[in-house]
Amino acid sequence: MSPTPNYPAWDAEEMRRRICEVGRRLYELFFVAGNDGNISVRLNADEILITPTNVSKGTMRPEDMITLSPEGELLNAPNGARPSSEYRMHLTIYRHRPDVRAVVHAHPPTATGFAVAGVGLDRPFLPEAVIRTGGTPLVPYAIPGGDELPQSIVPYLAGHQALLLGNHGAVAYAPTLTEALFGMETVELNARIYLTAHQLGHINFLTDAQIAALRERYDV
Ligand code: 13P
Fold this sequence. Notes:
Layout: H1 12-28, E1 38-42, E2 48-50, E3 66-68, E4 74-76, H2 87-96, E5 102-106, H3 109-117, H4 127-133, E6 138-139, H5 148-153, E7 162-165, E8 169-174, H6 177-199, H7 208-218
Parallel strand pairs: 6-7
Antiparallel strand pairs: 1-2, 1-5, 2-3, 3-4, 5-8, 7-8
Helix pairs in contact: 3-6
Bound molecules: 1,3-dihydroxyacetonephosphate.
């Protein structure tokens, strides 16, 4: 783990609005149903904004957001609301990835189908997985909101921007909230592309030579 950077502070009101926008986007994309999913941002070194538990991500208001310390202490919660039941997963990601300032968890249907079938998306079949995302490995099942889930993701956090959570969904994390949303969109799109190739009868994974050439060309 590298030392915690001195984060430029983000405007809290702006980020509360942005979390609501991303929640609406997840809902419109059908990446969540009912109260599924949760979103957080690291406002600064001492404060994390996170969605409350048990609310639709499609209808949240900026004032609904909850503020936690990086250790999980409740700093501000409107009307006694409680933070997302997955807050420890979010905090674990921030602890192990100092570059990350936003986390998005959702249940995008095709990618979650892969997580149910036990199929990871970490073997590269698109150049972008080598150049940018590092692919999306599958983390074995752990009870949502339970003690084991945050620990279960730790070995997979480095070198990836998103993970499939076994029999559960996906989580994407990035230096900005927009990039974390894009990461979630990419996971779902890659799952659809993989499924299409599979239905067509064959997946041409990138060869070791193609992967090496991409690494050299893009210096990754
Ligand atoms: P919360 O409503 O507690 O955030 O939980 C939603 C969810 O998707 C759990 O995995």
